[in-house]
Specification:
Layout lengths: L9 H6 L2 E2 L2 E5 L5 E4 L1 H7 L3 H4 L34 E8 L5 E10 L5 E7 L17 E6 L7 H7 L9 H14 L1 E6 L3 E4 L1 E2 L9 E2 L9
Parallel strand pairs: 1-10
Antiparallel strand pairs: 2-3, 2-6, 4-5, 5-6, 7-8, 8-9, 9-11
Amino acid sequence: MDSGFPPGTARQVAAAGRVPLAVAVVDCDGLVSHWSAGARRLFGHTAREATGCQAADLMPVAGGLAVEESGVAHGCEPSAAALPTAGRAAVRSPEGARADVLWWAYPLRPAGHLVLAADARRLARGGARPASRGPRVMPGFARPAQFPDAPRLAALLPHLLQEVGRADAGRITERVLELGYPVLEFSQCHQVPVTPLRYWPQQPARTACGSRAASR
């Protein structure tokens, strides 16, 4: 099968999942209740500034938090959608430069959202930029079991949520694994699991043509 990558780039693609992540927890009213150091670096707001503010005003998550009313998170009404969403958007970085942001939003139970985000310019080993002529990267979701290192990937998730408390971190981790592990999709044919830069496992890319699906 054609991998969809230029010759010699397979190793770089496998390394692309190692990326600094911004992590935010949003309540039923669309207000930020947790804001990580990674979110501060990516979006330029401190935790003190972001907590209690509308998440949609701080992050480019259009369509990820609201059903009809601006700022209202999924999960507040019984009829609200309970599927994860993802997207890609251009925003201004804290330094004023253009940032290309990938984001993943998970509806939580009983309400609210977990939002993960990453700077697409950092999708390579050590934060180097990938080649401009390489395949376009999009955020997506995958069943954790399809990756050889699934147990280790699952064990990494609570590290993203150390500041929200052990009980909440465990609950949110279970929800992420239920809905689908966050991945980078290259040309819709290869999926690379996203892992925090600090906790990167040696993980090959996964061919996923014809089997793209969020965990249900």
